[in-house]
Amino acid sequence: MNRAEKIAEDLLSIGAVFFRPDEPFLWASGIKSPVYCDNRLTLSDPAVRKDVEEGIAAVVREEYPDAEVLMGTSTAGIAHAAIAAYLLDLPMGYVRSGAKDHGRKNQIEGKLLPGQKVVVVEDLISTGGSVLEVVDVLREAGATVLGIASIYTYRMKKGLERLAAADVKNVSLTDFDTVALVAAKKGLIAEGDLKRLTAFRDNPQDESWIGARV
User: Alpha-carbon distance 195 to 192, whole Å?
Assistant: First the structure.
């Protein structure tokens, strides 16, 4: 079993990712989705947490060996960045969604020097907007952003295009397709629903997959 499949099994086992193609979830963006992802639950399960944090640390070692600092996204990426940084013996910090309106009015918390090589730690990526805002803040502060280490990505076309346009590399522990395949093998979703799930991933604005029968 490879890392992506192992993390997929982990996420499914604790209900961090689950599928409901016949009763879609409504995202804050208004998109109706057959899948819901809550990677915060990984922090509550010691075994899964160990797999995830060691996986993030391995991604940094393998893909970003020159990393000098880990920066978590606020708020979901903070704990993962902290634990992975501990495993790697690296400094860490995090980027707020906006600058504070008091004190030093920081948006970047933790020590970051101009020119330092940074890896952003994120829990999940869908359309890529929020994590790219973090990358922009770090670049404006003079950091060299090597890329992103994330737990899960939907691999949506819009997200992939945004990352490519911003020249940002992302390496995820697992992704939508892998989790869906593992879920089907475990009987958590019907084999016939895989095409419906893929249709959602390819074009979330097209809701024809809802109620469709394959």
Answer: 6
